Amino acid sequence: MTVKFSEQLGKIGVHVSENMDDLVKMRRHFHQHPELSRHEFKTTALLSERLRELGFEVRVRPEGVGLIADLVPADFDVMVHPTVAIRADMDALPIQEANTVDYCSRENGVMHACGHDVHITCTFGALSALAAMKDELPGRIRIIYQHAEEVAPSGAPEMIAFGAMEDVEAIVALHCDPELPVGTIGLKKGPLCASFDRFIYTIKGVGGHGARPHHCVDPVFVGVQLCQALYQVTGRTFDAREPVVLSLGEFRAGHAPNVIPETAHLSGSVRTVSNESRARVEDMLNRMAEGVCAMYGASYELDLYRGAPAIINDDEVINVLRDVVVERLGPESKSITWLKLPSMGSEDFSCYLSHAPGAMFRLGVRREGAPVHLLHSDRFNVDEEAIGHGAHILAGAALRMLHRRAEAREDVIL
Asked: What pLDDT is stored for residue 246 in this prediction?
């Protein structure tokens, strides 16, 4: 089985190399025609058409955005053979592109500034290579082309409800990293990205004339005290060895400078890298507001919106990725950057990991000598050589996981 996998990995490399021109054209098409979250209709339709041409069995969500497609070998039996998934996101951001390349976005105020056009294309390149050996596969390959990664609530739970993770035994994904040079892959075991929870306080006081605050309960003053309490509390509530980031982004109150309003609205986000810390967020938010409001005679309401949980990469899948990266790019010391710290940004790939083990890797996309424009920048761009590396590694990792799962099943049967 190992010899066969090595041969197949070599075929993947040849296939990807031979199709690089088409993959670059595909990436540039999607870059020119970005679509915002929950509006990825043309992207979904085009991918559906192209996947059917490759021999995939395609299911598009009734809403017209997001699809699941299966590459099924001729002898496939779900009771005997494993299924491994690859996930890619498709949505763009409401950003006006500032690049001057000839494939600039043609949609005013919309841009693939997070690299999802690259994610789409790397994944398609992987699928094309795997489709060329369809009946040699030891199981089923599933692609999840997901809508609405950039918004909350996001698209991952909707894809899961649509059946994306049914029978899936492992899942892989990638994300562009403009801080890593092309030809380098970022790997990390354990926490890779943080969870995201959004909260909104409505602080209720007693309004009145600005000249007579002693007749009022000023929700603006109470809100300011709550802001300070929240910024101070994390270091005394959570383990200092585990990152927790609380940020306040909005404070709204009143309509006139001489009127103390009845209410104030305060909102922000909390990010953690463990399920244990995340579970304590709601209690912390309530305790802080209860104490501050009681001190000054106000009351409050708290609305908490749970976003994506933290991405916790599976060790086995990371080891598979490491082996495939070395096969593709050479010695680990040169091809792999082992990431020491998690990102405190969130990514809803994490939702799939509650259904099967998996991992996301960072794809180096920085062109040598080029300035670094970070994700969500209006000048974000990539070295398109990275597309070949991403396609090869995704295909190789999915294929190796299929072989491992198939071998494990054979051992159980024996």
From this structure: 97
